[in-house]
Prior knowledge:
Layout: H1 4-17, H2 42-69, E1 75-77, H3 79-89, H4 95-105, H5 114-128, E2 135-146, H6 153-163, E3 166-170, H7 175-189, E4 207-217, E5 229-236, E6 239-257, E7 262-268, E8 273-280, H8 285-291, H9 294-303, E9 305-314, E10 316-323, E11 360-371, E12 397-399, E13 404-410, E14 415-422, E15 434-435
Parallel strand pairs: 2-3, 4-11, 9-12
Antiparallel strand pairs: 1-14, 2-4, 5-6, 6-7, 6-9, 6-15, 7-8, 8-13, 10-11, 13-14
Helix pairs in contact: 1-2, 3-4
Amino acid sequence: MRFKLFFSLLLISLQAAGGCHVSPHRLGRSGSDFAFRGSHSAKDASFNCKIIEKNTDFAFTLYKQLIFQASDLNVFFSPLSVSMILSLLTLGVHSTTRTQILVGLGFNLKEIQEDAIHKFFQNLIFNLNIPNPNLQLSMGSALFVDERLRLLEEFSQNVKAMYTSEVLSVDFQYPVRAQKRINSYISEQTQKKIEGLVKDVDANAMMILVNYIFFKASWERRFDPKRTKDDNFIVSENTMVKVPIMVHEGIHNYFRDRSLSCGVLQVAYASNETALFVLPDQGQMKRVEVALNQKVMKRWLKGLKKRAMELRIPKLSLSGKYELQKILPALKIMNVFSKESDVSGIIDLAVKPNHVTPLISQIVHQTAFEMDESGPQTVMNTKSHVKVRMSTARHHMMEFNRPFLVMILAQPNHSILFLGKVVNPREAEGLSASSLS
Length: 437
């Protein structure tokens, strides 16, 4: 499986070095192995552990900034993808520009060697791109550079080798044509799952960096499509919508966080990722969001216990698009979007047009996520849904009929592949809410 050998080897090294927390719930599952590139030394494992912790901190920091800008809307993004695209930039930016990115990501080069950061993401991308019948995943990035600039070959080669990223030449003097080329490229890379990534391209643009990821996986135990029925989802005190609610009875890992008044449920995918759903009590969402940090997440994961329950959760199709140049300055990553940005490792500054400022005008990140009863229709070996008869005394129902949080975690080290909040399950479908009577 995509993550199995990579993280199993990491687990062995970390256990020897006394490193990261690892969940006992999903280890030792069967699946095909694959080659892992790079060294497996205890030193490498220590660096990987620190990188994972920093990525987790960055994930929650960025999430809080996103909800600060739009607390009443769906939020959905890939923290690992954003960390990855910013780390990619450090291959070509220098001085203050580079320092701000590394500090913003939480990386201290006195603790973590820069080569280890690039190697970590290189291995992660390598493993994510391995075909898996239980998972549809399209993930990548590309830098579009105006043809008037002279790209440095070393940068182009490094981003391709380490981040499987392409650097493509476009003519921004014809913005409509440039926009069409960028969007066509992303559409092709994601099998048309992500369309219209960039809009209103500026004729004065010099460089636009795009990052995309689409995810849809099969459950380890599928839901029964016959039990999916439309029901009410309470968006707010005054608004509700009708959404298709999936139902599953079975054994799940569950934790009740009494200190934060929320329930935490872990549901396994067949592809060796897991979904973590967090359902705050009515009116407690902001309390949970303020508290989100690595310590809280570890408490949730450690507290998970197997429990027989009935799960009711909306069928989802979510997307999120963020122009990072509007968000990252709040995290003190601002120099990259200014006229002071040092991109001397990306282009030959001797041929830079004099009027151009800034050189990097946009960094666009878009995610697309689907969650239904089973997963990809091509899956042949996914376990079928299982009905579990539960006595009334043991029966526990967890009903996601109000806003909740969702995380998609890579096992066994709990790297956050996706993080989001579902406020309105129909928002992504372009459907409007109806007022409560």
